[in-house]
Amino acid sequence: MIAVLLAAGAWSYITAAYVVVFGTLIAYAAWVIVRGRRIGRQLPPEDRRWSQ
Amino acid sequence: MTSPTSGPSAGRFAVHPDGTASHGSRVLGSVVLASTALFLVLALVSSPPDTGGADAMGELVRIMYVHVPVANACYLAFFVTAFASGMYLWKRTEGWDCLAAASAEVGVVFTALTLATGSIWGHTTWGTWWEWDPRLTSTALMFVMYLGYLALRRAIIDPVSRAKQAAILGLISFVNVPIVHYSVEWWRSLHQQPTLTRADPTIDGLKLFTLLFGIVLGVLVYAWLMLHRFRMQWAEAQVEAKGLDVALAERRAEARADGGLGGSLDAGGVRS
After folding, report:
1. What's the predicted TM-score (pTM) here?
2. Mean pLDDT lowest among A30-34, B29-33, B199-203
3. N or C: which end of chain A has fewer CB within 10 A?
4. Is B63 in contact with A14 (Cβ distance < 8 A)?
């Protein structure tokens, strides 16, 4: 019983760690993509070498 | 404006016409997504809890599968920043400055995640969210130093001066990275010794494979973020340069209109 309770407590920490890591990376990636598009609109296509 | 799904890149890996994506980044992104799904299965389902020895971590070993990869990715990011900074001071080309800036920002994100996951892990194993331990303190110092690097880049308007000073700071800041890594060997530390590089690795089998897979995934995520972040940095630099050109042209036009008020503007926009 004690082992089960300890394991349940451990899983809340594990969940928190994975949510923090993947949540932050997804939010940062979304910010980079959205801001990249916003800035890309201000450039002529010939200056966006990667899209050619 | 063309449709996001039109043009030569149409199809499964179609890219937005205004964005920072390319066919290659889409392919890499797909590999990252598939690898992430596999990693989550390995780390949260397939990999067994740690049961060996008096220091066994039980289920908490699963936190290590994300903590070590994000720490490894921040080392890589700051190495790239230092290398690109050195290359900028040597070559003085804009691309190296953009690479250093982009990698520093991605590295700061990974360092924040290293501190956060380490704190969660520490609370379960040490009973405290934070200790002024050599590894934790040197990592926090590294985080603050690279935040300072990013702040410096925002504080200086002149692109050439900004790039030069940031490159110098990028090189100086990297001195702390090996101190962070070896702090657990150089000083008495609550933090455990290196898991993989020691003579007798403390994990094996599927746990070792999951950790190594996580480290590779961390590098892939870094590479994908860098592709986009570097292109964004490059685009920002181009927009900034065009803005400066426009401002300079307007200034020259004003000077011509003033006429008799005297003088002309030199290449730097300074009245002579």
Report:
1. 0.85
2. B199-203
3. N
4. yes
